[in-house]
Amino acid sequence: MELTRKSIQEQREAFLQAGYRLPEFDYDKVKAATEASPAWIHFGAGNIFRAFQCNLLQNLLNQGAVDTGLIAVEGFDYEIIEKMYWPHDNLSILATLKADNTVEKTIVGSIMESLVLDSANQSQYQRLKQIFAAPSLQMASFTITEKGYALTDAKGNVLPAIAADYTKGPGQDGGQAPDSYLGKVVSLLYHRYVSGKKPIAMVSMDNCSHNGDKLAAAVWAFADAWCGNGLAEGGFAAYVRDPKAVSYPWSMIDKITPRPDAKVEEMLNRDGIQGLDAAITSKNTYVAPFVNAEECEYLVIEDHFPNGRPALEKGGVIFTERETVDKVEKMKVCTCLNPLHTTLAIYGCLLGYTLVSEEMKNPLLKRFVEIIGYREGLPVVVDPGILDPREFIDTVVNVRIPNPFMPDAPQRIATDTSQKLAIRFGETIKAYQKRSDLDPADLKLIPLVFAGWLRYLMAVDDQGKPFTPSSDPLLQAATAYVADYRLDASPKDLSRLDPLLSNEKVFGVDLKEVHMDELVKEYFAELSAGVGAVTATLEKYVK
């Protein structure tokens, strides 16, 4: 057996006997309809897209709830398409790792066409322009990571590639096309504009706050630059700001989709499917013909689609107003999931864990995240009305994180921790400050997370063994604050930590102003008192 359309047609019974769920729709009919009247194009051909949106649409195609498939586009690492999509006829295997120790195997075939966002590849680029000119196109969605929307560097300077594209224009009528990811996307939107000012929803599905605004800001910046430089028709800037023409809905997405796991690959190989070798691209992306993911998933989208939309609600997507999306996003990011993940990431690295699920077998760590979620976070959560916060935490603590089949590592989650603390914990502290019935001084374990991060920056685990911290834009700068501390001789003077603890960009608040800095330093001193001090500190304050 092979992961190709020919193979699943000719050896359908063999796949079914091996336990695979297969596409049940008429592929040729759907492909023809998609080519003639495309409705949904997606940018960002990575794992969460294949595990979530693709499987979601396949279920709807199987039900007959929609009649067109997906068009997948990759604009950062073209080799994802070249090495994994095209050789497998746009098919992928989804291994859903369930908490009951079972694995559901699905061959997902809802992608009808895959393209690279390469303005130098004329055949691909012209096809993209053709798709964007189609009156039927209802939405362009994105999973390109929060960094993908950046136009400036940390100092506010316009990135060189963006600045160059501002002076090139959209590349119409034989002009030089943009080179940057966002520039190429906006050039396609410009082509839709000159093809009749057709409406469309530009839907960011990235896991970041107010994601639609980030996409809108990028589109508007390009439109303003091109119109201001006389490189685009003057009405384009108004078009991309007209909510009846172009919308940028907010969304909240939640599905844990770790890197393709070797154990899953071994399982699939035992089923007799050939050619499932993973690869590492020249841009260091680890890609495979399969994805592994948890069963639990949420997608909440602001219902603002000026050209209509597919009936995704029949597949479990929740459509609502912007304010509710915001509440759901804050519930997840500030309380019910992300803070718990970050806590486990920091302490998992310090205690030598390589799987988050294994951490939940440690009663101290399990209790740690339960207190942060239920006792410290839940009192300030605004109930969004469509998802119950307590039930959400219940599922996270009892089902999702402990799932033994989820090969998720604390080292992966610890990436960019300095960029996460302000949102995942700082917002809770601010909420306590605003409430007359709550006192930030009652927060005892959130400061222990902050202290744990300082201890993590020492890059030595609880057994005194060095480890390599995960990548983080502030890693070098933050590490300098703890550079002189040692497990065997931690200085009594912790004042050198003060500038870092007062950094609102890192913690969301000035910890000195909220009188939390001294507690953090006390915890840090205990955590760094010697070998085994991390465990001893958890025993003291969590148990």
State the gist of this model.
By secondary structure, the protein is α/β, with parallel strands linked by helices.
Radius of gyration: 25 Å
Uncertain ranges: none
Compute the separation of the termini in Å: 53 Å
* Proportion of residues in extended strands: 5-15%
Number of helices: 24
Strand order of the largest sheet: 6-3-2-7-8-9
> What does the main sheet amount to?
6 strands, parallel
Strands, count? 15
Shape assignment? globular
Average pLDDT works out at 95
> Which structural class matches the secondary elements?
alpha/beta
Helix content: 40-55%
Layout of helices and strands:
Blueprint: H1 5-10, H2 12-17, E1 20-21, H3 27-36, E2 40-43, H4 47-63, E3 70-74, H5 79-85, E4 92-97, E5 103-108, E6 111-116, H6 122-133, E7 139-142, H7 160-168, H8 181-194, E8 200-204, H9 211-228, H10 236-239, E9 246-247, E10 251-254, H11 262-270, E11 279-280, E12 286-287, E13 290-294, E14 298-302, E15 318-320, H12 322-336, H13 338-350, H14 356-359, H15 363-377, H16 389-400, H17 410-413, H18 421-434, H19 446-457, H20 475-479, H21 498-501, H22 504-507, H23 517-527, H24 533-541
Parallel strand pairs: 1-5, 2-3, 2-7, 3-6, 4-13, 7-8, 8-9, 14-15
Antiparallel strand pairs: 4-5, 10-14, 11-12
